[in-house]
Amino acid sequence: MQKNTYLTWFLTALLIAGCTNDSAISNDVSESSTIPANRSESNDQTDKPLEVTAPTPDAKSVLADIYKKPIQEGTENQLSDGRYVSYWSGSQFTLNGKKYFAAFSDATPESDIEYPAPEDMVNISQATYELVGSEWKLKSVQQDVGQFGANNKAPVSDTAHASVSFPTNKGSLILAAPTAIFANQGIQLFFYEIFSFSPETAQWKYLGSIDAGYENSGGCAHEDDSATKTKCVKNFGKVQLSSAEESNYPELKVILEGTKLGEDGNVITLTDKNSLIYRYDEKSSTYQVAH
Predict the structure, then answer these.
(1) Would you say the C-alpha torsion 205, 143, 140, 85 has a positive or negative sign?
(2) pTM here?
(3) In whole angstroms, what is the distance from residue 78 CA to residue 60 CA?
């Protein structure tokens, strides 16, 4: 499934998502909105697996560190300049022998948008913590990570899948944070939001989103005698470095596993030939699928 098809579904789905709160995936500021520390994965083969030695900062603490404003649970979290802010997701990773926790938030523009459009994105901010002894110490705060989402909403963090991190040959780190949205005809789309981290400055940069598969369980035929004739399929992509480039933004490969619908409506089992390659595009400052 090509990127432009995903994008069309993505923009349509966000319009739908703005009108409903019954999704199992929530983006609210609450304890449950925080991705548990053990939901993140690191592919740094030189470091030992992460050991959970201290609870990571919660959503309210993260927002207070970023915006220098106490966050009260149950409020709309509006700042004095008119922006609405919320916790987005957090991930643990190990780099150069140090353990970090990066937490991202999103903020609407300062002025209200009466009728948000697909091009109306939200701003990304971050607070990064380093584990010192048994305590997470604030390492950096940044409110210019980038912009993402549409219709004045952030992509919905997918807590069913783990974030993945990769150290690069240049000493930086690539973080892929999973997101999911519900589109038309019972289809759920999966993505990774890509970020780059510099340990020298403890600063982040948003590098766009890449496709990570889809499933159609909400609109397919679960029974043989179903009135719906569409067959059920599900696929999800595992992201990895495609090559060991001497770059802060190395080539990425998404290996799709599972099944998809062919042009004739029949189920196709995916193989490595269906993998997607993404390269960083200097003009757009984002990862783009390589044709």
Answers:
(1) negative
(2) 0.80
(3) 13
What whole-number distance in Å separates Cα of residue 266 and Cα of residue 52?
45
pLDDT for 62-97, tens place per residue?
999 999 977 765 556 888 888 999 999 999 999 999
* Among the listed residues 255, 230, 259, the one whose alpha carbon sits nearest the alpha carbon of residue 240: 255
Nearest alpha carbon to residue 242 among 168, 135, 190, 181: 168
DSSP state of 64: H
Q: Which residue has the tokens 């053990």?
A: 38
CA-based torsion, 106, 109, 110, 114: positive or negative: negative
- Give SS3 for 38: helix
Q: Which helix (H) or strand (E) holds 183?
A: none
Give the ranges where 109-172 is alpha helix by DSSP (H): none
> Dihedral angle at the C-alpha atoms of 20, 26, 28, 34, nearest 10 degrees?
180
The pLDDT tens digits for 148-159 are 999 999 999 999
CA distances from 63 to 25, 206, 246 (A): 20, 19, 35
